[in-house]
Amino acid sequence: MGEIRYLANRDLSKHDVLDRIVAEARSNAGLWLMVKERAMEMRALKSELGRLGGDASDMGRSFPARLTPTIAELTEELLSTIFGSCPPDMLPRAQAALLLAAESELDADTARPT
After folding, report:
1. Domain residue limits at 39
2. The organism sits in which domain of life (predicted)?
């Protein structure tokens, strides 16, 4: 996995940093596949929860994460590889950016004619 050392000295709240994190994840085929699997898992859990009449806040209690490592663990490992250490508030934002990018890619894949 490549390093993005020069980002360590930049403002981590800028959107382009999240874009670079997503690009870094996409450049690692195995990692990106796991992120897409987690996005698919989240979709399945939300669908099941909707079928049962719950809401998103019940998801963590009702359906424990089935895939390991979790998306949080994958994101934390990616960020520690890129930055060494980064502010704790960066983890959920990076996780959300990774899941959003994976979901967008999954949507694009299902929209393509076969």
Report:
1. 13-108
2. Bacteria
